[in-house]
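Repro:
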Amino acid sequence: MDTAQSCYLVVFDLDGTLNRTDLFSVPAIQMVQKELGFPISSRETIVSCYGTAYREFMSVLFPGGTEQTARDYQRLIPEAEAQFLNMARPYEGVPELLTALRKQGYQTAVCSNSNYRYISTALKAIGVYELIDWIQELEKGMETKTESLACLLQKTQAQKAVMVGDTFYDYHAAQDNHIPFIGCGYGFRPYEMETLSPVVKAPMEILPFVEQQMQKQS
């Protein structure tokens, strides 16, 4: 998917920004929790973990778990997700947004705290994999999305870039890397977006703000 050239880059978070993750992820995680003998978390608890780094994710959903627990989770979750992927959907307007951005000459990327397997699987399940030019996972040794986004910006050699997301993790990653941020008030953490600007209520509202934020960059 990578194209090693200078670009104007629109970077998206995945869960709560492009992907209505809870539709398939909640039942899949609950299935694995049951199989490993852990308490089954509520939808609200699972959703609250979207966007967090893997270590925090595991500590909340598999409290007291060991390294073996983490290995078991990684072994079981792909099969569990596969059972529910037919329920996967993008937010309304996401395919049209990505198509419009690419027609206008922008490159698109996903920067997520998840691993490449999950990101690519989710993008394929919601039908937008071919509309994404770059995928940036949280690589081994990385602790935060700030590091991951920095790696992506270096890899793409982007002349200008904008980060789009629905959590403070996304906002702080953009701030730390000195690029503009567009908040998604329709995502999983609208309360974190309340004091930010610009914030959109639907994916297609992102398009004019991308142009606006790009123009502000020298």
